[in-house]
Amino acid sequence: MKILIAEDDPSFRHFLEEILATWGYEVAVARDGNEALQILQSENAPKLAILDWKMPGMEGIEVCRTIREVAEEPYTYIILLTSQQRDEDLVIGMEAGADDYILKPFKLNELRVRLRAGRRIIELQDELLAAREILRAKATHDSLTGLLNHEEILDILDRELARSERDGHCVSIIMVDIDHFKKVNDTHGHLAGDAVLRITAQKMHAIERVYDAVGRYGGEEFLLILPECCQECAITIAERLRVWISSESMDTPEGIIPVTISLGVATSSRDGIRDGRCLIKAADTALYKAKENGRNRVELASNEP
After folding, report:
1. Domain carrying residue 278
2. Is 213 found in the same domain as 289?
């Protein structure tokens, strides 16, 4: 684990650096409080820090206060080194956000034990953050396809439309439906149907730009959101996806299955559709037009509100 030593005394700093390296830590060194703050606010900053209370520039306690005011994740476990033994000083240090303190002079075993406690807290916090991310992913993503779920993709559409109205850009969406999906389930079984959904999702995910979003709208329907994408560009993307899906049969646990999709494209405009529900309705109407006209095709919606 990476640890920061902030100490202005060169000999004591070097001593701590050697000891901590012997204990298996990756050591970063700061010679004053300003340098310590810069390191702790940098990318991949140490999660453990030993700060001397009295340092040139910012004192250790001020560095501690600044870090706590920002309150960024992941958490930084801070130990203050001090020769001040008054109870009120120690209270001030803890109220500034220090997690622990060590009085100078100290025994090496004492430091080692306190660092071990700090590591345990950091590791527990990392586990909690990982668990939170898993829960967040489950709350916002479809469990079968891994795409954004219905609620999340609609939230993103609303945000993109609001942003586009401020910036004067357009937003395009593509509604996608797998043709004759019920027949896939009835003929090959639901395991094959699930595989078709997953493969379709993977292919849609592969063609999206970094700022696009794709979600499972419901059943065998999907929604692609294309910010700052004009009507012509959206049609091109939709056609590319249609050709990619239809040109190669899907390899499922129940055999090779040919699959095609129908797509409806709708684009917002300054004088036309700006409401999320209206835009989806327009794309959905275009999608059903594609189905009525023989499926495996792209149809464009009207821009009228």
Report:
1. 150-300
2. yes
* Angle in degrees, CA 263, 241, 200, rounded to 5: 90
Active site residues: 220
CATH code at position 162: 3.30.70.270
Q: How far apart are CA 71 and CA 199, in angstroms?
A: 41
Residue 305 lies in a domain: no
pTM of the complete model? 0.66
Amino acid at 101: Y
Alpha helices by DSSP H, the chain: 10-22, 33-40, 60-70, 87-95, 108-140, 150-167, 181-188, 190-207, 231-247, 276-292
Please check the confidence at residue 28 and state whether its pLDDT lies above 50: yes
122 and 168 co-located in one domain: no
Are 128 and 172 members of one domain?
no
Neighbours of 298 (CB within 10 A): 24
Instruction: Tell me the C-alpha to C-alpha distance, in Å, between residue 273 and each of 197, 230, 287.
Output: 30, 13, 17
* 189 shares its domain with 110: no
129-166 per-position pLDDT tens digit = 889 888 888 899 999 999 999 999 999 999 999 988 88
Are 257 and 175 members of one domain? yes
Residues facing 227 on adjacent strands:
171
Is 143 inside any structural domain?
no
Q: What is the dihedral of CA 93, 5, 43, 115, to 10 degrees?
A: -70
What is the rounded distance in angstroms from the CA atom of residue 81 to the CA atom of residue 63? Answer: 13
Number of domains in the chain: 2
Q: How far apart are CA 79 and CA 276, in angstroms?
A: 51
Judgement on whether residues 111 and 167 belong to the same structural domain of the protein: no
- Calculate the alpha carbon distances from 106 to 83, 103, 180, 236, 282 in Å: 10, 6, 75, 69, 72
